[in-house]
Amino acid sequence: MESVLSKYENQITIFTEYLEEYPNTDELVWILGKQHLLKTEKSKLLSDISARLWFTYRRKFSPIGGTGPSSDAGWGCMLRCGQMMLAQALICRHLGRDWSWEKQKEQPKEYQRILQCFLDRKDCCYSIHQMAQMGVGEGKSIGEWFGPNTVAQVLKKLALFDEWNSLAVYVSMDNTVVIEDIKKMCRVLPLSADTPGDRPPDSLTASNQSDELIFLDPHTTQTFVDTEENGTVNDQTFHCLQSPQRMNILNLDPSVALGFFCKEEKDFDNWCSLVQKEILKENLRMFELVQKHPSHWPPFIPPAKPEVTTTGAEFIDSNEQLEELDLEEDFEILSV
């Protein structure tokens, strides 16, 4: 078992060619919809990246399901990417895109409450335990590797039973012929949340105007962290404090999911308009938007809530119900 863990902990070494320092150029770098001028704003760029919540493999947490695995090394990378995606959406929702994190600095209580939703405990609403068990309904056994589309479906279910009044849009696709569209979506659409793919690095990414992606890699195994006696979480291992890595976009796996956060319904309407204007105008489309649920698709069945009472959902819930802000009411996103 130790040799298996060691294999995945060291998986990151195959990307050493991307670890060089950032070049001193006039290029713009886009981090989740926000641009930085690399030549003059490198420190802001690095600060922006380190502020993102970074979820990696963990070990020594309570066994999933009571008798299952106590580490997700080797199989939980895509779930960790899904957590990064969802955490970024929650940060945007409750703290705003311009919120910044600094090491050892006291953070808003909303930040701590968001972080606690993702701790590796069965009673935390977005924990590895909840996501793995939710995946059973998608045909995935606990301890089995997930693909981007499965993770997107699990996130959709979790958000549904937490009754968000905001919307996270997840688009799963095969990127074999749409590299340019993916680059355009990262730059043109301002609501980016995250981009996991299913080949290392399974990563939260950002893109610049060249052919490179910046990523946070989950393939590092860290020890389980729990709440401290004062009710807070030591968050030092939930932020990547080293220089972020880069990869050529052509090395991105063909299976990928993009995430976009829409705080209000008008944001979703704007997102649809931008996608139709900038992305879906080509003959070869990576996905489609349609007004109604296709008749040949199976009917949508809301997921059952987990048996375990989770903490954190009361923070996420709104006092108002979802005002019909569902993809099936406005547009249906079809992946191809």
From TrEMBL:
Transmembrane segments: none annotated. InterPro entries: ATG4_LIR, Papain-like_cys_pep_sf, Peptidase_C54, Peptidase_C54_cat. Keywords: Autophagy, Cytoplasm, Hydrolase, Lipid metabolism, Protease, Protein transport, Thiol protease, Transport, Ubl conjugation pathway. It is found in: Cytoplasm. GO terms for cellular component: cytoplasm. GO terms for molecular function: cysteine-type endopeptidase activity; protein-phosphatidylethanolamide deconjugating activity. GO terms for biological process: aggrephagy; autophagosome assembly; lipid metabolic process; mitophagy; piecemeal microautophagy of the nucleus; protein processing; protein transport. Belongs to the peptidase C54 family. This is Cysteine protease.
